Amino acid sequence: MKKIAMALSLVLFPLTAQAQSGREQVVQAVTNDLKPAFCANDLKQAMQIVEGCYAKVDQDSEKYNMNQCVLEDIMVIGAIKKKQKQYLTNYMPDPYAHLDFIQPVNVGLRVGKHPNSFTDAGSSEEMKKTFIEDVSTIIDNMKQENCFDLDKLK
What we know:
Keywords: Signal
Signal peptide: 1-19
Number of domains: 1
Radius of gyration: 19 Å
Largest sheet: none
Distance between the termini: 61 Å
Order of helices and strands: HHHHHHH
C-alpha cells in the first residue's frame, strides 16, 4: 500500500506543480506582457501594452482577459504615480501630469467597460489587498529578471 501511495505521489506531483490557479495565471500573464516594456524602462510602451490588452478584450466575446488588463493597468498607473512622486520630491517638472492615460475618467472608462474582479467586488478591502499582493508579486517577478527599476523607468 505504501508503495502505491508513493508511486501515486510521484506521478501526481508534477501535475500539481504545473497546475496554477486562475489568479496565478493572470499574474504570470501580466508579468509576461509587461516585462518587455519594463526591461526597456519604457512607460510609453507599457501604456501601449495596456491599451492593446483592452483592444483584445473588446474583440473577445468572452472578455476572458479583462482581469489581466485591469491588473496591467493598475501596475502601469502605479509606476507612473511613483515616478510622479519622484519628480515632485526632487522639485522637477512632472512629465506625466497631462497624460490622458492616467486621468481618472479615462481609467474609469477602461476598467469599468467590461465586468472584472475589481469592479465586481465593488473595490472591497479584500479585493484591494488581493490586487496589491498581485502587483507586489509581479514587481518581484520582474526584479528577479532585472526588469524593474523605477529610477531608470521613463
